[in-house]
Amino acid sequence: MTEYLGRIDQQIKIRGFRVELGEIESKLQLLSGAEHCAVVAHEAPGGKRLVGYLQQTDKAQITEFNENVLLQRLAVELPDYMVPATLVVLAKLPLTPAGKIDRQNLLAPNWHELDDASYIAPEGETEALLSQLWKTLLGVELVGRESNFFALGGDSILALQLVSHVRQAGLLLTPKDIFEQPVLKQLAALLQKITEQKVQLLPTSEFSLMPIQQHFFSQQPAEPSHWNQHVCVELKQGMNVDALAKSLHSIVAHHPALRLKFSHGNKGWVQQYTDVISSDLLWNCKIDDDAEFSALALELQQSLNIYRGDLLRAALIKQPQKADRLLLVIHHLAIDGFSWRILFDDLWSAYQQLSTTQEIQLPAVSANYNQVIEQLNIWTRTLDMQQQREYWFAQGSSSSSPSSLPLPIYKNRRTVSVKLGIEDTQILLRKTVGQLNVPTPNLLITSLVQTLASVDKPDLHLYLEGHGREESVFGALDLSRTMGWMTSLYPVKLSWSAYAETCLESVAQCLNEAQQHGGIGYGAVMSYESSKRSVNADITFNYLGQYVDNGFSHWCKPIVAGGPAQSDLNPMLTPLVINAQITEGQLSLDWEYAHTHHTENEVSQWANDFVVNLQQWLGRIGSKTEVKADLRLLEPLNQPCGTEPAIFCIHPVTGRTTGYQLLAERLAGKRHLIGIQSRSFIDDGWFDASLSLMAESYYQTIKSVQKQGPYYLLGWSLGGALCLEVAAKLEADQQEVAFIGLLDCYVPGFEVAEDQWHSPKAQQKLMEHLSLLLSPLSQYQSQQCLKLLNESSPELWPSQFDMWLSTMPVSRHMAENARQVLFSWAIEQHMRAICANYQLARVETNVESWWAANPEGRAKQLSSGLKSINSLVSNKIVNSDHLGIVRDEDVISDLIARLLNE
């Protein structure tokens, strides 16, 4: 028997794909009804492009022919790279002497006069740059506005290289951006130029305050100019006094929020920019002992003046037998926690530039403080003010403090400090979200309610804080380079319950309501409140998260010193203020209290009880096994279509589902594909405990969006093993599993040694990836990084990596890119670790599998291991490797035929 293979000479390569011209010609003739059809690949600007030729002798039919409609119909039947760029209608196709179509005489059209239906050219410099970079990195000939990075063959490694090339062009991009916006035109919109940002004109007149600034003045501080934030550091290297002074001056000149001055008049307190910069921003001091340091620090703290716009001052301090210190004091009206990161980045950058005789060039301010206030006022006018008033006033307590005493002053402040153990802190960070399904702050606040409220006093009134830079409020306004005090302060009323779970749920519900838009609604209401009604709280709770050194500890080390940041005569916000933060892997809590309102024994007892209550929750986490659906894991890979069930595509060991993008594009309009991604890319610090718990979560999630079978499951690499786990659960639930497709499935016992972390090749590969982002790393730097990682498990790598990264003189943007890469590696290696002693699930459904032929012999080993557990209805080896199999043309064609029942 002879099998007809078609004309071999009609197989060509377009945009990296093998294309059979005869297949296109058959579809074209079927849809057009033309007498004869031919498709030819012609050279064109940007690479080869397909042209379809139709023979139609009836002139009337030629007139009625609609090229756009026919091309659209072809696009439904064929992938975009097989759709001709244009169609040409001829009265007769040229023939050879043998009577065959003479393809060499089918002339190419005039490309410059055609409106290309399958290609939209890049627009603007940024899109053109990305297009050229994609062509180079991906090895494709044509990249347009609608091109998808991953559909063209991109992967995580190429994404790293793209980030590196883009940074060299002076643009900002992260690997995360590429994963979230893989389409060229969408990715281009995210890029922010460093050197071409427009200079924004500052208003010369007075303007209103942010709500948090208004709240500050409403407390009527006795000494409003002495209400600061400060940082004191020990320097790890000597600093040039003149260069440091010029750097400070440049920062004040560059950031308008550091040049605000304040005045009080008929309209109340207002602020205004000033161009006057103090000539003594830096004090160069030599002292003899700690007593002199304390006196100097107090003098520096008291030296600011909000009426003149004198909001920043620093001191470079030399003391015998001690490292030099830098004390930097800034009035709180001009800075918050987020702003400090910007300031230290710019200070170090400016100093480095001066030290190498360069001109100071700082990244442009993304939005000025007055613009932030204008946008907030616009947003406030969209609120239902009456409803907001009623809600927020219901949150406040009826008196200013528990004993109806006036607010205490800082002179009365005392502090009790407690810590949670390192092991318990790690449970808090790693397992709270997953097993209790609540954020870490919720659990801390619930423990606080259990500690301070009771059956006799069930309501607890708290002030909480947010960063205040909510995208839902400020929209397209970019606040990433904006300094200023933007903190949102808002009250919440929480209720005690004797049942812990009820208390936790009640707290979660209250916080969800209050934290819409980050709690900014409260400040907006109070800004427009004319009745001067008071909304008070008894306690302030502030969770500061995990301390990050922000990449400047290679030149300095923060220390606890610097004098009183607030005047002793200024009022405390509440008689009890609790600040919680995780430093060096351990949760610490400072309970600041006014001794005029609370005793030390009382506060110490509360602090210790809080730790006990929190530990009880952490004990429950260890034994809690209930797993719920998580719709956040679902990533639609193409648009919903038709009535056929969706195809669920489970992530490989990398945790991402972008590899399925090509299949999703090929099935667009025919079958809906939904990716299931790793939760680690949704919840910060999340690492799955086991494959079985992962599978249970995916099973619950799939059942929540599709109640009944038939179910279609597709898994690549580790995703294949998870598919089998999910399928086994569905079968146990008496559900029909119509399809299980495995692409180079993970089979225990056949791990690739060089992919495991203990392999020198794996460790070398990581350092190569980091070098792409951090410039070439020295052998010593690489060894130090690997040493820290080898001393801990993958789930602790992010914190260990931050320790190493703090020694590197890199910008914040470069550091953040490196953190993203390291986190992806940590996820992958953690998943490999939890595969130890794993056994594949057994299913009743027949399995269809595709294996990569490279490296040679491995496919037979894997398929043999899989067949020893499950029945394989098909078992195909394709000419690909593990990474390329998900985009292999033979695999794609097989899957399309199988899923469409062709």
Beta-sheet strand percentage? 15-25%
Fraction of helical residues: 25-40%
Biggest β-sheet: strands ordered side by side in the sheet: 21-23-22-24-25-26-27
> Please, what is the average pLDDT?
85
Task: Work out the radius of gyration.
Answer: 32 Å
End-to-end Cα distance, whole Å, is 24 Å
pLDDT < 50 runs, ≥5 residues: 1-9, 193-199, 399-403
| Dominant shape | globular
Determine the structural class based on helices, strands and strand pairing: alpha/beta
Number of helices: 28
- Biggest sheet statistics: 7 strands, mixed
Q: What is the strand tally?
A: 27
Supply database-style keywords.
globular, disordered N terminus, 28 helices, single chain, alpha/beta, six-stranded mixed beta sheet
What does this molecule look like?
The chain is of the alpha/beta class and 902 residues long. The chain is 38% helix and 18% strand. It is built from 28 helices and 27 strands. The strands form seven sheets. A seven-stranded mixed beta sheet has the order 21-23-22-24-25-26-27, with helices on both faces. A six-stranded mixed beta sheet has the order 14-20-19-17-15-16. Helix 27 (858-867) links the parallel strand 26 and strand 27 (872-878). The protein is globular. The chain starts with 10 loop residues before the first strand and ends with a helix. Residues 1-9, 193-199 and 399-403 have low confidence and may be disordered.
